[in-house]
Amino acid sequence: MSRRLFVLIALYGGIPAGLILALFIGWIVAQENATTVLQSADSPDRRYRAEFVREDPGVSSNYRYKVRVSPTNLSPLQQKLRELPFGPQYTALDANREPDKLTLRWTGPEELSIQCVGCAGDTTGKPDWRDIQLKYQIN
Q: Is the pLDDT of residue 29 over 90?
């Protein structure tokens, strides 16, 4: 009786868990393939990387443009999971349309300047993340 109960629990618990895992893996692969890095810049000490990316959310909406900052020494698993809310990445600028001109420039090992023409009204992040000072010039 206990063996049969174990098989039933494994069957009814394993199938949904496997399906959820397969959907999660598919989401990660789709998210990675739908993101194009348009510009990137490493900090002078090579600890951080700032990237200007275009994300394609699918047929339901337009491209999204983001400036994201993350450590450069991420493991392959951390690179895959960086889009999750608990991931090691920070979104410094979130735009719903393509900016006219965007420039990322490290002015020091812990200071990133983000200059964006055509980003007025878009969502900017806070002025610091970890030990990095973020300077925004948005118009």
A: no
Per residue in 94-124, pLDDT (tens digit) is 998 899 999 999 999 999 999 999 999 899 9
Burial tier of 68 (Cβ tally within 10 Å: 0-12, 13-18, 19+): buried
For the whole model, what pTM was predicted?
0.72
Q: Please give the residue that has the higher pLDDT: either 13 or 126.
A: 126
Domain boundaries of the chain, sorted by first residue = 1-33, 35-138
State residue 93 phi and psi, 5-degree precision. -145, 135
Strand order through the sheet with 111-117: 101-108, 111-117, 132-138, 128-129
Contact 117, 99 (CB under 8 A): yes
Strands 128-129 and 132-138, sheet pairing: antiparallel
Question: Which amino acid is present at 90?
Answer: Y
Instruction: Pull the structure tokens for residue 86.
Output: 């608990």
Structure confidence at residue 85 (pLDDT) = 57
The CA distance from 100 to 1, in Å, is 69
Nearest to 33 by CA among 56, 3, 63: 56
